[in-house]
Amino acid sequence: MARTRNRESTPTDLPEEPKFSLEEPQYYQYNYTSSNTSAVSGSFEADAYGDLNGNGVTSDFTIIGSATSGAIAISPNIQEVNPEE
Predict the structure, then answer these.
(1) How far is the C-alpha of 19 from the C-alpha of 82, rounded, in Å?
(2) Residue 67 CB: number of other CB atoms within 10 A?
(3) Sign of CA dihedral 16, 10, 4, 76
(4) Is the pTM of this model over 0.70?
């Protein structure tokens, strides 16, 4: 993976679903996926990953959530892979 540098997102970098924008420079790249979505149910996963120190090893942070009958549940823990990188 290429080294991640502080950068600005453009509207085409972000998925349409989250309905937010990142206007300040970021150190991570973000990914959002959803599945089985309807007006009252579905699930999602949000990831942030980057190489802050430029050594070619990325950090990865993931959180998952779901909606059932209109109630949203978000994992209380963020999954981390190489958080110190």
Answers:
(1) 29
(2) 19
(3) negative
(4) no
Q: Residue 82 carries which side chain, given as an amino acid letter?
A: N
- 3-state SS, one letter per residue, for the chain: CCCCCCECCCHHHCCCCCCCCCCCCECCEEEEEEECCCCCCEEEEEEEEECCCCCCCCEEEEEEEEEECCEEEECCCCEEECCCC
Q: Which has the closest alpha carbon to 53: 8, 85, 7? A: 85
Sole residue written with tokens 């309807």: 38
Here the tokens at position 32 are 């959002």
- pLDDT tens-digit series, residues 23-47: 888 888 989 898 887 777 889 999 9
Distance CA 82, CA 70 (A): 34
